[in-house]
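Posted in: Structural Biology > Protein-Ligand Complexes

Title: Requesting predicted complex, fe (ii) ion in pocket

I'd be grateful if someone could produce the 3D structure tokens for the following input. Sequence and ligand are given below.
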Amino acid sequence: MTTATTSRPTTQAATANRLDLYVGIHKALRHFMTDTLHSVGRMDTRDSADLARTLGQFEDLMTLCEQHIHHENDFVHAAIEARQPRGAARTAGDHVEHFAHIEALRAEARGVAQADDATRPGLALRLYRHLALFVADNFQHMNVEETQNNAALWAHYSDEELLALHHRILASLPPSETMEVMRWMIPASSPAERAQILGGMQAAAPAPAFQAVLDLVRPHLDDGAWDKLARALGVPQQPGLVNVR
Ligand SMILES: [Fe+2]
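-- Reply #1 --
Done. Output follows.
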């Protein structure tokens, strides 16, 4: 087993304030994965609307997982390998398995959609179990990335370089993918993280695009979380209020 190693020792205290490329997107993925797993588990296989909605969310998750793997391969793993050859070998190997796992799950989901009423419950339960194993694999994998891959990035790159890499990743995303990520990332993040992510977007994005993100995430935040976010961003806490600052 190949592991990413640092060229010099780093302590938790020394790395606590380093720029973390993984934390936000991985919180989004953990949220999206667990929500979808629960949705598949409680799906009413005799309700065509529930079936279509749940399998649609499942396919959206598979698509985002594929896109995420490509971004990590093209940007993050490439950066690690450029300064630490084979430093990303372990998680790159995981990615090959994840692509195959995604295709197998998609085939099972098609089987659920096409099944008759008698066989659909059994196939749905199989999909639920296998999606759970995919989620479990990804939870293990993301922890390796957040520890070993981050250690490699922090050993070989400055925060300024990592921030530039982060901006290149963000610039490569189509708007639809950015919106999908925000829908899951913002509710899964801490108040301070939400304020930082959306504050950056507020400063850089056109006002209508920023408003669209707020409208997207608002239904997924409780009132207390929304109040904290609105205060941090200086936007109305309730419709009709101009500014809370
Ligand atoms: Fe990964």
